[in-house]
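Final report, Chapter 2: Outcomes

The project's central promise was a pipeline that accepts a single protein chain and returns its three-dimensional structure in a standardized token representation, suitable for archiving and comparison. That pipeline is now operational. To close this chapter, we reproduce one record exactly as it appears in the project archive, with the input sequence first and the structure output second.
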Amino acid sequence: MSQTDLNLELLQAVSAGRIGPEEALRQLELNRADKLGFADLGFARIDLDRKRRCGHAEVIFGQGKTAEWIIGGASRLHEAGQNCLVTRVPEEAAPHVSRALPSGDYDPIARTFWLKGPGESPAPRGNVLVLTAGTSDLPVALEARNTALALGTECKLVADVGVAGLHRLLSRKEDLEWADAIVVVAGMDGALPSVVGGLVGCPVFAVPTSIGYGAAFGGVAALLTMLNACSAGVAVVNIDAGFKGGYLASMVALKATRPA
């Protein structure tokens, strides 16, 4: 059936009183957005085609956005049948978002909000392991973990296994062997990714955090250490960018387990 036929059918339904004009307008807007590949909400143009192009729906960066903007974007992705992950949700916006979208999950430590797409979620594929050097790195690590889960992988988080007590890391040998990709989150001296990279045969995504005393320079010291990692299998993302680490690790893990 052509788009013209669909529109005519819709108008006939309004004329017959089967649906109201408001619902007809909503359906027309949905049809138009599907054709264009994005939905123009005025304050944002939500990319509805990204899942087809890249394999995953658009992720909303919440920092600097009002609750209304976040709710509007998340709702539109959900209407399109897509997963919606929001990162860096402002503290003042979180309760409004949770009330408006009660089926979503808000993590106050990670500052993420995850609204699953309608219908059953597919079984997770691929194994992502998230490690932290210290407990203070957990907010960034949880952002990485929640991202990996939202993208459809199995994900384990192991906290506080930094190099100041290396035996703690070595006790997790089974987890290291289980992983298809590993995210290592560390502040201070940022040494943990290089150690992990020397123990495993999968990619390691290093996430420097802004944790540390003055000479840590807000994560710059850890970033430089990671960029100079001796282990060949270590790649580095931006300071505190748990989302980027989790996203990249998930891409690797999903590819590694893609059916032939």
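Archive annotation: The chain has two domains: 43-121, 127-256.
This record, like all others produced under the grant, will remain available to the consortium after the project formally closes.
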